[in-house]
From TrEMBL:
DNA repair recorded as keyword: no
Listed InterPro entries: ZIP
Protein's name according to its UniProt entry: ZIP family metal transporter
Keywords, sorted A to Z: Cell membrane, Membrane, Transmembrane, Transmembrane helix, Zinc
Family per similarity comment: Belongs to the ZIP transporter (TC 2.A.5) family.
Higher taxonomy: Bacteria, Bacillati, Bacillota, Bacilli, Bacillales
Keyword Transcription regulation part of the UniProt annotation: no
Subcellular location: Cell membrane
Length: 243
């Protein structure tokens, strides 16, 4: 439990660490944004395909894996349907005025972080002692650019830099709670771990395919984003082999 809590805290606080540069800058190019998003996509793809899915299969079978993956994808699909998607770079796409309803935007971003914390918690409950750290690291690497973009968005809405940093950090902190829930349920309920691992893989791959890849390829930076994706993939495979 202690290791799981430490891992989830580090993973969650990576959102705040990624937002720290906002104290020194207020603009980011589309090219850099796309590179960061694509790199995060590569990290999450590798974590799903080389860690979560193989571990789920080793503890169960193809039926359990398929159910878990589809469940994770469906949960994210429901969140996408009922929680407004916020394009941090496109003011025209915002469904409401930031000055009047800023807390709704923060709530939407926070809700999208819930499955990530669940992924970390379930991974630590697995019999593979190294899996939890790997998934926590992959989620943390994905959270860093997300935290920066959230803080940048808030600063551009005339919110103070330190306050923006604090809010960005809090949007990731919710992962600590869901990590605890995922770990507790998987530790208590027999046979739940492989379902949870597959669920986490499905949720992560939904985020990659629905959000990260399309957003990283939408501004004419497809080539550099593709290279960044591959570098993220190689980074996580290397960490898997080392640890």
């Amino acid at each position: 439990m202690t290791e799981a809590m430490i891992g989830s805290i580090i993973s969650a606080l990576s959102t705040g660490l990624g937002a720290i540069p906002i104290l020194f800058m207020t603009k980011v190019t589309h090219r850099l944004r796309d590179i960061l998003l694509a790199y995060a996509a590569g990290i999450m793809t590798s974590a799903s395909m080389y860690s979560l899915i193989p571990e789920a299969l080793s503890q169960s079978n193809l039926i359990v894996l398929s159910i878990g993956i589809m469940a994770g994808s469906c949960v994210l699909l429901i969140l996408e349907r009922y929680i407004p998607h916020i394009d941090l770079e496109n003011p025209e796409s915002r469904p409401f005025n930031i000055e009047g309803k800023a807390f709704l935007i923060i709530a939407a971003i926070t809700m999208h972080n819930l499955p990530e914390g669940l992924s970390v918690g379930v991974s630590y409950a697995s019999s593979d002692e190294t899996l939890g750290n790997l998934i926590a690291l992959s989620i943390g690497l994905q959270n860093a650019p997300e935290g920066f973009l959230v803080a940048l968005f808030l600063v551009n809405q005339n919110i103070g830099r330190f306050k923006a940093l604090g809010i960005a950090t809090l949007t990731g902190a919710v992962e600590i709670i869901t990590a605890f829930i995922g770990y507790s349920l998987s530790s208590v309920v027999d046979g739940l771990v492989p379902y949870g691992l597959a669920f986490a893989a499905g949720a992560m791959m939904f985020i990659v395919y629905k959000e990260l890849i399309p957003e990283s390829h939408g501004d004419g930076n497809q080539r550099v984003a593709t290279i960044s994706f591959l570098l993220g993939l190689i980074t996580m495979i290397t960490l898997t082999e080392l640890f």
